[in-house]
């Protein structure tokens, strides 16, 4: 439940960050955290939440390949770590 709350919080706050079109460390940090939450949502089968996160990224961040790659990598790593830990969604 804690992860779901974090997921919802990041999805709601992303537009409020006022991120400019230039890539910044803040963007990378937010994208990485969003990717990690996406991995948790995938592991818990919260598919609608994953869609919301991807929509938020497309809508509020610049279309830069590095950001998309970082999101995918963070999602994949978190999903695998949950699988290896044997953690389940609660």
Strand content: under 5%
Q: Nearest-angstrom radius of gyration?
A: 13 Å
Distance from first to last alpha carbon: 6 Å
The largest sheet, given as strand count, sense and whether it forms a barrel, is: none
Describe this entry's structure for a reader.
The structure is a single chain. The chain has one domain (2-10, 24-85). Helix content is 73%, strand content 0%. It contains four helices and no strands. The chain has helices spanning 2-13, 25-43, 47-60, 65-85. Helix 1 (2-13) packs across helix 2 and helix 2 (25-43) packs parallel to helix 4 (65-85). The radius of gyration is 13 Å and the shape is globular. The mean pLDDT is 79.
Short account of what is shown:
With 90 residues, the protein is mostly helical. The protein has helices at 2-13, 25-43, 47-60, 65-85.
Reconstruct the topology from this structure.
Blueprint: H1 2-13, H2 25-43, H3 47-60, H4 65-85
Helix pairs in contact: 1-2, 1-3, 2-3, 2-4
Keywords:
90 residues, 4 helices, 73% helix, mainly alpha
């Amino acid at each position: 439940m804690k992860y779901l709350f974090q997921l919802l919080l990041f999805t709601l706050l992303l537009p409020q960050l006022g991120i400019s079109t230039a890539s910044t460390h803040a963007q990378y940090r937010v994208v990485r955290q969003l990717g990690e939450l996406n991995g948790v949502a995938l592991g818990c089968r919260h598919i609608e939440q994953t869609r919301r996160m991807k929509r938020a990224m497309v809508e509020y961040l610049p279309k830069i390949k590095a950001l998309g790659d970082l999101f995918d990598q963070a999602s994949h790593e978190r999903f695998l770590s949950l699988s290896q830990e044997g953690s389940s969604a609660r």
